[in-house]
Amino acid sequence: MALTSLDPITALVIVDLQRGIVGLPSVHPIEDVVARAGTLAAAFRRHRLPVVLVNVAGGAPGRTERPRLGGPFPDGWTDLIPELDPQPSDITVTKRTWGAFASTDLESQLRQRGVTQVVIAGVATGTGVESTARQAYEAGFNVTLVTDAMTDPRTEAHDYSIANVFPRLGESGSTQAIIELLATRSAQA
């Protein structure tokens, strides 16, 4: 679905752009994803809209067929990257599952601020971003995905999420399209 509008109180949610993850391989240059996420964060702050910075510090319990990272993360692994320019007004969420809503207070924090829509960017497209988008959709938020401000270590996961999952959860658009909608919205207010 093409990007059509932003609700009056829309929050930006940036998933897992943290020191331990941005150094991992990805299908799109992480520097571009980081730059676009930083641009979006600055634009949302300029328009006095909530910015949510999410990091991951563990994994959900349970058996899986694939091995998980074991033991404690190295020092600094969960630190949000400085390019996001974290501000005291930002909402920060530390998750231990793929999605940012499960087992956190993110939904209540957004509801307290009157948020009805979330714009999501970050890594990894097929896990953290997609899970956060699914959970936001299931919680009743309008969902927008910034496809040029996300990446994944696996091409097939990134492409599948964008082509098959995201259209069922909400609208998708570019960083520039989001910034233009923010400007149009402000001009009309």
From TrEMBL:
UniProt keyword Hydrolase, yes or no: yes
Isochorismatase-like domain span: 10-175
Top-level taxon of the source organism: Bacteria
Keywords linked to the UniProt accession: Hydrolase
PANTHER family: ISOCHORISMATASE FAMILY PROTEIN YECD, PEROXYUREIDOACRYLATE/UREIDOACRYLATE AMIDOHYDROLASE-RELATED
Protein name in UniProt: Isochorismatase family protein
Species, as recorded: Bradyrhizobium campsiandrae
